[in-house]
């Protein structure tokens, strides 16, 4: 296994010693913008089922998959074809295709327009059942991790819990197809995530790297089944970069492994659209406010989606 600087932290520790868990979680986020979380409560058999179902979907013919592309929806639901997304300021498109599942809201909900109903591929029988369950399980794990962050920042747990209630969260199923031996570039260009925090499953296949404070690229190599969690720009902004959103990328494998596809599942936990991202007073203590202009989560998201070619 590749060497990693991020030891796995057990989420079970939160039940026994919330302060101890928060201290370790916060230290990892503060230094790297990333943490690796084991015992996160997402059932292993559900993860295995999800991995199987996504493989079945991405193996479908291109025209069948493309029928689930929703034009004008900024990729928020359904299928986004290979070569669409491009990292901010990058020259080449990422070598990936993906499927997005969003939060299911009642039709008369105030944010129903921003979070439209999901679509489901009829070719994969269990797809809806599997991914609706996985969305919920990751949402629950995400709230516990946010509790750890709130404990670390000593801000009480309500602000972040309330902030993500009915949030515009998205589960992304990612497929990076095999690449040719001489393929240039990277599977996913260096970027920061837009959202609150990201919970990533399936990063065991090597390739994910984070940029540390000295500018070095470090491999992120979680043990099987663990979550890789990272801070997104919205939380970085809320905390005045006390918890930094860290640049990461997925590099191409060595030539002998280029015949292998890569599959991963990031869950982008988002604030609700009308949540106002306004620097936390406790993160100002003696520091300059890097983000003096408050912005709603929705305005921030729209700005960033335009930059990555999705809106
Ligand atoms: O595939 C991965 O491991 C990372 C994906 C990622 O960083 C993203 O989709 O934002
Ligand atoms: Fe990312």
TrEMBL record:
EC code: 1.13.12.19, 1.14.20.7
Pathway note: Alkene biosynthesis; ethylene biosynthesis via 2-oxoglutarate
Pfam families: 2OG-FeII_Oxy (PF03171), DIOX_N (PF14226)
Cofactor(s) annotated in UniProt: Fe(2+)
Alphabetically ordered keywords of this record: Ethylene biosynthesis, Iron, Metal-binding, Oxidoreductase
Catalytic activity: 2-oxoglutarate + O2 + 2 H(+) = ethene + 3 CO2 + H2O; L-arginine + 2-oxoglutarate + O2 = guanidine + L-glutamate 5-semialdehyde + succinate + CO2
Superkingdom as given in the UniProt entry: Bacteria
InterPro entries to which the protein is assigned, alphabetical: DIOX_N (IPR026992), IPNS-like_FE2OG_OXY (IPR044861), Iron_ascorbate_oxido_reductase (IPR050231), Oxoglu/Fe-dep_dioxygenase_dom (IPR005123)
Protein name: 2-oxoglutarate-dependent ethylene/succinate-forming enzyme
Record family assignment: Belongs to the iron/ascorbate-dependent oxidoreductase family.
Lineage: Bacteria, Pseudomonadati, Pseudomonadota, Alphaproteobacteria, Sphingomonadales
Sequence ranges assigned to domain Fe2OG dioxygenase in this UniProt record: 166-271
